[in-house]
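Reminder to self: tokens first, then the designed residues, so the page reads top to bottom the way the pipeline ran.
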């Protein structure tokens, strides 16, 4: 299973101080050196973390695969057609949410999304749609011409009981198989971490997982000791 790393949280830390560090562009290079096979960044309408400069530079430096996660708006379409990421992931976006809460509601917007996706694909950019693990979404994803589905694993990741987790896993498995049989590439993401990723290995159709929060959180702890030691050494 391949790993794509979402570097939004590096930009979130930078924006907390309005400074230039830490830079998600440098983080992307480190992730690739460590074996990530893709870099994901979500350019939000409110630019709360990743900004336009980051996307431009990430396009220049990312050597594996740049996935531009974005809402299906005219502003984002213009940016994607200029930047030409390897992949665009279409997500719903609400200003008030802390993170992407649910999958895309394709059925409500099918004909517009079909044209929208076609325009992106004409530039040789692959298009992924972020969807909840509900079987009805697969036909919709095929109908609008998506190349890839990213299954929203948030409910699975946040399940409070073993039964809920097994039910969610079974839903994820079902739509992964359905999508794969229809020729779609299947990836998964949201809320995945160092503990809950294991059951996904039982779903061979999932080619890649997209992880952000857990990796950046762990980076703080595996790096904190060294960072303090370095400063202590300077002060000595
Ligand atoms: N995939 C998509 C489409 C997302 O919106 C996010 C969150 O930015 C992720 C994956 C990564 O989720 P997390 O940060 O919980 O690993």
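Designed residues (236 positions):
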């Amino acid at each position: 299973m391949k790993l794509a790393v979402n570097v939004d949280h590096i930009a979130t830390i930078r924006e907390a101080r309005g400074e230039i560090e830490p830079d998600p562009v440098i983080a992307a290079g480190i992730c690739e050196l460590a074996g990530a096979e893709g870099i994901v960044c979500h350019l939000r309408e409110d630019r709360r973390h990743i900004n336009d400069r980051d996307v431009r530079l990430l396009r220049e430096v990312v050597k594996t695969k740049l996935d531009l996660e974005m809402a299906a708006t005219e502003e984002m379409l213009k940016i994607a057609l200029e930047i030409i990421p390897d992949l665009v992931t279409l997500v719903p976006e609400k200003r008030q949410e802390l993170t992407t809460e649910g999958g895309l509601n394709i059925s409500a917007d099918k004909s517009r999304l079909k044209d929208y996706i076609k325009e992106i694909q004409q530039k040789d950019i692959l298009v992924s749609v972020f969807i909840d693990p509900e079987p009805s979404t697969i036909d919709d994803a095929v109908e609008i011409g998506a190349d890839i589905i990213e299954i929203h694993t948030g409910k699975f990741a946040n399940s409070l009981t073993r039964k809920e987790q097994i039910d969610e896993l079974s839903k994820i498995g079902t739509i992964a198989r359905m999508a794969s049989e229809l020729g779609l590439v299947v990836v998964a993401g949201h809320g995945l971490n160092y503990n809950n990723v294991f059951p996904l290995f039982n779903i061979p159709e999932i080619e890649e997982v997209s992880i952000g929060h857990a990796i950046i959180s762990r980076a703080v702890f595996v790096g904190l000791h060294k960072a303090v030691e370095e400063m202590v050494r300077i002060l000595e």
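The domain at 2-235 is CATH 3.20.20.70 (TIM Barrel).
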